[in-house]
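Posting here for the record, re: zinc ion.
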Amino acid sequence: MSMYDLIIKNGTVATASDVFECDIAVRDGKIVQMGQNLVGAVREIDAAGKYVLPGGIDSHVHISQPSGEGIVMADDFESGSLSALFGGNTTVMPFCLQERGVPLRETLKDYHARAEGQCYVDVSFHLIICDPTDAVLGQDIPALVADGYSSLKVFMTYEDLRLDDAAILKTLDVARKTGATVMVHCENEDAIRFLVEKHELAGDVKPLAHAQTRPVAVEREATHRAISLAEIVGVPIVIVHISNGQAMDEVLRGRARGVRVLGETCPQYLMLTADDLDGMDWEGAKFVCSPPPRTKAEQQECWRGIETGVFDLFSSDHCPFRYDDPQGKLSPKGRSSFRHIPNGIPGVEVRQPILFSEGVMKGRIDLPRFVALTSTNHAKTYGLYPRKGTLSIGADADIAIWDPTEKRTIRHADLHDGSDYSPYEGIAVTGWPTTVILGGKVMVDNGKLTGKKGDGQYRPASTHPKTNCK
Ligand code: URP
Ligand code: ZN
Ligand code: ZN
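Prediction output follows.
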């Protein structure tokens, strides 16, 4: 009888701290041995010439989320998690959006029902809090945090989601008491409204106006305010989807004052610009997301943040809508004004290949920094570490084997999400995760799907990051 279920041999292994040559042995879904010349497995994978990395964790994805009247998100848990898997991910963290007047637990039950038996990767949920009543803050959140829903997202923009400063302070205070982690979407809603009205009055309703009505100052001001509110309460905070250098500087200023601020950026802020929203006819709608992509100079600023440690997290903010669809970007209302175009773009499958190719292969970052940005720091920030996010004895055997020589051109036709386009169409990348292992099971074997729907499981998250990301 074999001692191990699987041995990955001869690969170059990388964690967030080290790169080394070793074999990895797996039994009952866990890593049980790491060393030289391991033998005695039912199956061996020869990873010579390949990188063996922790499976990616994308801690910012939207799947099956209600998105307004007549609008339907392009991914359910089956397609969204399949796309994540083929992009080298083994865990995703989607959001459960609170519904006004409905107990959070009921809404969560509904998300679980949609995810149950459908997933190709493991799943852990964040809660979006848009109606922090006394009962929600006093009873529901503390009970849910204890049950494994330990991260909350709050919005400073979107009429129907935004919290005012008083509500944000109260939510941060509950996080302080319970050990939850709060993610904040930082854009000043009143400033956006002011600019939107001006553009609409002038008859300027094309997709490009989405970027023009959400300028850098709107994000910088809200980022400063969110960090200040966290400072007042005395609680860590995650600033999500940072798009520019001025917001990054607010993160650094907060840290210099002693606030524990974590920063997240996304592929759209490295690869796209506002010019992409200026496409022929309504094609610019394909790139409408918030905050919007900015300038080439701001892309360089975001690279500075990747390289120098301003950013702890690199997530996709996968929020897919179909383009050529009355329930997507080209809804009748969406065609009437940029204001009604559903916000969000797909990206879960290409997040890691883009950072690997543009970051590691172009020498901007090393492999440990890549692993930290795409996996380890997500697990640490959101209570999944050390079970996930690293390669060590006792961790889940969630592993991606990367071929650093594989050259691909991103084509939506080759991707697995439910949208009908990729905002990254035509971008050439070098390096791809060709084999992906979830809990010891080979899910993608040299580019071919071998896992099945339902192999991905729900994973509750614990409170308080176990270790600092830095
Ligand atoms: O445009 C975006 N980012 N849509 C997704 C929702 C969010 O704010 O993260
Ligand atoms: Zn957001
Ligand atoms: Zn998002």
